[in-house]
Every structure is written in C-alpha cells, then in structure tokens.
Specification:
Elements: H1 3-16, H2 23-38, H3 46-102
Length: 103
C-alpha cells in the first residue's frame, strides 16, 4: 500500500468511526486530500485519487449530517419550551377555575 493511499485510508477510517481529529489538523488534512484528488501528477494513481475523493465526500456528508442533527435538536428544544409554556398556562387556568368554584 502506498503512503498516499494510507493517508486517505486513515482519514476515511477516522471520519467513519468518529475519531476525534484535532481542529488544527482538519484544515491541512482536507487540503492534502483535495490535493491528492485533484492532482495531475502521473505518480499519483487513479486509486489514490478516488480514495481521496471518497474521503472528501464522506467529510462533506458528515458535515451536513451534523448540521441536520443540530437543527433537529434545536427544533426539539423549541418544542419542549413551547409545551412547558402551554402546560403552565393550563395549570394556571385550572387554578383560576378552582378558585372561582370555591367562591
């Protein structure tokens, strides 16, 4: 296995398994994968280019998925807050009706 192929395979494994990649390495890693995928160097084989491109696509997909999860979580939190507000209003209404019934 060539070293460039190994770089792409390790990057793919890190993304697939959710390994914690330090922020300071993410930029250079993506740049290197892009360099491999888009290279016109004949020393870089088709398999290496395809491997690098797959990792870039996976990184993009995971990035979009994390955004989707954040949006869903935000919507969920908003719904929970609204339900709590409705419950409080209903509780207050019940208390007011109980007080009116006692008088």
């Amino acid at each position: 296995m060539r070293s460039r192929d190994l770089e792409a395979k390790l990057a793919e494994r890190a993304l697939r398994h959710g390994w914690d990649v330090p922020e300071e390495l993410k930029g250079p890693l993506i740049a290197r994968l892009n360099e491999l995928a888009m290279s016109t160097d004949v020393a870089i084989g088709t398999c290496e280019k395809i491997s690098a491109a797959k990792v870039l696509l996976l990184a993009d997909k995971l990035g979009l998925e994390s955004i989707r999860v954040a949006i869903v979580a935000d919507v969920h939190d908003g719904l929970v807050e609204r339900l709590r507000a409705i419950e409080m209003q209903l509780d207050e209404k019940d208390e007011d009706e109980d007080l009116e019934g006692e008088s």
